[in-house]
Description:
Layout: E1 6-10, H1 16-22, E2 30-35, E3 51-55, E4 72-76, H2 88-97, E5 106-121, H3 129-145, H4 154-160, E6 164-171, H5 178-200, H6 204-219, E7 223-235
Helix pairs in contact: 3-6, 5-6
Amino acid sequence: MQEGLRIADVGAGTGIWLIELSKTLPGSTQLDGFDIDLSQLPPKEWLPSNVATHTLDVSSVLPPSLVGKYDIVHLRLFIAIVKHNDPVPILRNLVAMLTSIEPGGYLQWDEHDHVSQKVIARDPAVDTSNVQAMLDFVRPFDLTMGLRTWVPSLAKILAAQGLVDSRLDRYPLPPEFYQYDTDNVFGVYEEISKKVLDKRGKGEGDKLRKLIAAAFVDSRKGVAISHDKVVVTGRKPASLEGGHERGDAPDTDL
């Protein structure tokens, strides 16, 4: 395993990805977690010694100290953060964070592919109409918020930003996780009903909550919502930025 790697986790959340990664890599690896809100992360005294956390809004101007700094940049579950169905503004900052020193830095983006979303029943005789009605109701709002259309094209979008060896790998959800993942979907749609639809003042939030309640009952009869998880990767070639030096170490808060 290479010594001295610099790895960034953007949208670190609870920090679990970096904490688990620290157990498998040499102690010389620098692991930096970035998030717009650090409240879910443990205090620095409770983190591994080579894990540090920093405040960062990746959709804003990137601090110069982060340019060209990292061998690997990782992020996941930005599907509701990407605006206007366009991940490029965020992607430009992620690419800028990658080192241009040979062989160049690697980007890994883990995401849900809502385009692959489908309703599954444990038996063909089980009624799926309530779950399908909920999805049909939400789909126009998904499209408006850009939750459904860009993920399958993400490898091509990486390539258009100058990354090479870009690829998208699909991981269908195992059946044992169907119910768990469906419950997560219910939670997301409940949040949409309150934070988005209620503000429109057209009764759409109430209607969605009724659909969720009916779909939940059917989910306990063996109906689930499934969609693929995707992992998209690409490498920044050393020639893309002229092979400049890495940035300086980031401040605690950026």
